[in-house]
Amino acid sequence: MLKIVRAFAIPVLFGAVVLGLSASARERPRPKCVKIGGALTSALSSGPCSSPVGLCTTGEFKGDGLLNGRTTFVADSLQQAASTEAPTTLAYSGLLTIHTRAGTLTTRDTGILDTANGLIGARDVVVGGTGIFEGATGYLLFQGTGTSTFVNEASGEICLRR
Predict the structure, then answer these.
(1) Sign of the C-alpha dihedral, residues 127, 129, 134, 138?
(2) In terms of domain of life, where is this protein from (predicted)?
(3) Per the confidence metrics, is the pTM higher than 0.70?
(4) For 118, left (φ over 0), alpha (ψ -120 to 50), or beta?
């Protein structure tokens, strides 16, 4: 009799666990991921700059609509990119914030700026947000030109929690 109970109990318990996991997976909303494309135009900030290395920019992001808005960037590090690079090639990192009608998105912006040739490239990872960007994840990639005014093409993906 005990063997019969075990023979039925184990599959029934296993099935209940699988159904429970499936139900909880369905209850959690999946993030809505959006491909990003657009352009960021910015300039060195003429107003107050809270950067410890003296590098701040303000600008505007125009693109697919989700991230259209004003931008601010505050660098927290700036140094020569590498000992093998010209001293005019700088590595930087800081926080880029995009202020939209639906909320703000903050990214950790890490990049290379070639001041002699006016070339820039950056990788941004989402680190915070408000409004629809609260709990968001994702990244942006920038490439462009400039030395005091910067024009960058952007691509990436932002995943919204809601």
Answers:
(1) negative
(2) Bacteria
(3) yes
(4) left
* pLDDT one-digit tens code per residue, 55-83: 999 999 998 889 999 999 999 999 999 99
Closest CA to 78 of 55, 47, 108: 55
State yes or no: pLDDT of 41 exceeds 70.
Answer: yes
Structure tokens at 58: 């303000």
Q: What is the SS3 assignment for 124?
A: strand
- Residues 6+ positions from 61 with CB-CB distance below 8 Å: 38, 39, 40, 67, 68, 69, 70, 71, 98, 154
Mean of pLDDT values over 109-122? 97
Whether 138 and 162 have beta carbons less than 8 Å apart is answered as no
CA angle 78, 96, 108 (to 5 degrees): 70
Q: What is the mean pLDDT of the chain?
A: 87
What's the rounded Cα separation, in Å, for the pair 36 and 154? 7
Contacts of 94 (CB under 8 A, 6+ apart): 51, 55, 73, 74, 75, 76, 77, 108, 109
**pLDDT band for position 13 (cuts 50, 70, 90):** very low
Query: What gap in Å lies between CA 94 and CA 54, rounded to an integer?
Result: 11
CATH dotted code for 32-160: 2.40.350.10
